[in-house]
Amino acid sequence: MNYPSRMENRRVFQIAYDRNLLFTREELLKTRGYEVTSVFGNDAAKGVLTRSQKYRLFIVGHDAPKETKQEMVRWLKDNFSEIKILALNAPFQEPVTGVDVNVLMNGPEEWLAAVEEIAA
What we know:
CATH superfamily: Response regulator
Order of helices and strands: HEHEHEHEEH
Radius of gyration: 13 Å
Distance between the termini: 17 Å
Number of helices: 5
Structural class: alpha/beta
């Protein structure tokens, strides 16, 4: 069985829908030793992701309508079914279906803990 290397376990791809939070989340992850690729929105993610890239986790940001996030999750599952997906959700939003972990966006502690668990 091929196990991912330590560095592959630390590679995260973030799809954000708020530019400020894109940079904030990216910096938080980098300070914890993650290699992060961040994009703004679904179209950018689809334009950048290729099968040759190896990621441990996709993070789908919270600041978009559920339908937008759900569409991104469907695309990710169709193209990268082996990679885990963490969806961040606004307090008023229903959880996204088809992801590995849904986290209520209420500060970074909970979603960072979920990232650590997935990367372990």
